[in-house]
Amino acid sequence: MLYGKVHRHFLRSMIGRGVINLQEAASILDSLNEEQLPSLEDLVKQINDELRPFQQAIKITNDELTNEEVIVFLSLGYDDATKSQSVFSANELEYFRLLIEQIMTAEARQITGINAMNLVGIMKASFTKTDAQKLLNTWCRMRYLDKDHNNYALGVRAIHEFESYLRQNMPDTIEECCLCKQIVFRGCNCPSCALAIHTRCLNKYLEKVDKWPCCKADFHASQLERLHNGERLSQTQRLENSNESEENTEVDQTQESTEDIQTTQDIIPEISQRVTRKRKRT
């Protein structure tokens, strides 16, 4: 089937929604009342052939939060055209960068709502908790974030759109699953050997044997609860340390003046087109 009305209609729906499940995809196609329709896989492939020059794509993948197959619209560009499409302000992008770093350095790959709000306190520019809450709601709606109870984790859209950004700019925060060797966005670290594992990979492995797959230590469900509780404590401690560090920096201006800082431009696709990050020269 040649690229035409069906493909354009489906693509417009994907751009508008960002993420849809397979049932929603079927409803979109059925609404066209076409006698002959390509398979979903062929439809995605043909659309991606057209999107490739624009550094965009749609992808059929698994949503780790709902454990269902979904289709995601992704913006993967790093060029000047992409950077010019600034949807959010510099302060908002800085807040999102802080969120990513906190989530990716958390053992459970998620942070509490309180910790997400308190990140406002370590931002350089004026930014309120009201501003932060509005953005958290927006990013959850766009599926860049997922809210599970009162915890925030990277959503399915961010997981697939930000992978190359994280590998390039935050390599120290990345851990790969000991089973599938992909980056762990939703998972935990084994309490015995500290290796990372996806939640979905762990659950599938536990269907066969009640042991941690990385070191074969006995698995107990209570271990996961202790990991989450311990992570909530460590997040609070890290934030307190960060706030204390910020206060000390403001007081001791002479120490700040001795640091040699290089400013670089890092591009985050779609949601944050340009983020300025400070790195010390080595």
UniProtKB/TrEMBL annotation:
<dbReference type="InterPro" id="IPR002219">
    <property type="entry name" value="PKC_DAG/PE"/>
</dbReference>
<keyword id="KW-0862">Zinc</keyword>
<keyword id="KW-0233">DNA recombination</keyword>
<feature type="region of interest" description="Disordered">
    <location>
        <begin position="230"/>
        <end position="282"/>
    </location>
</feature>
<dbReference type="GO" id="GO:0005634">
    <property type="term" value="C:nucleus"/>
</dbReference>
<dbReference type="GO" id="GO:0008270">
    <property type="term" value="F:zinc ion binding"/>
</dbReference>
<dbReference type="GO" id="GO:0061630">
    <property type="term" value="F:ubiquitin protein ligase activity"/>
</dbReference>
<keyword id="KW-0833">Ubl conjugation pathway</keyword>
<comment type="subunit">
    <text>Component of the Smc5-Smc6 complex.</text>
</comment>
<dbReference type="GO" id="GO:0000724">
    <property type="term" value="P:double-strand break repair via homologous recombination"/>
</dbReference>
<dbReference type="GO" id="GO:0030915">
    <property type="term" value="C:Smc5-Smc6 complex"/>
</dbReference>
<dbReference type="InterPro" id="IPR011513">
    <property type="entry name" value="Nse1"/>
</dbReference>
<keyword id="KW-0479">Metal-binding</keyword>
<keyword id="KW-0863">Zinc-finger</keyword>
<keyword id="KW-0227">DNA damage</keyword>
<protein>
    <recommendedName>
        <fullName>Non-structural maintenance of chromosomes element 1 homolog</fullName>
        <ecNumber>2.3.2.27</ecNumber>
    </recommendedName>
</protein>
<keyword id="KW-0234">DNA repair</keyword>
<dbReference type="InterPro" id="IPR036388">
    <property type="entry name" value="WH-like_DNA-bd_sf"/>
</dbReference>
<keyword id="KW-0808">Transferase</keyword>
<feature type="compositionally biased region" description="Polar residues">
    <location>
        <begin position="251"/>
        <end position="266"/>
    </location>
</feature>
<feature type="domain" description="Phorbol-ester/DAG-type">
    <location>
        <begin position="159"/>
        <end position="214"/>
    </location>
</feature>
<comment type="similarity">
    <text>Belongs to the NSE1 family.</text>
</comment>
<keyword id="KW-0539">Nucleus</keyword>
<dbReference type="Pfam" id="PF07574">
    <property type="entry name" value="SMC_Nse1"/>
</dbReference>
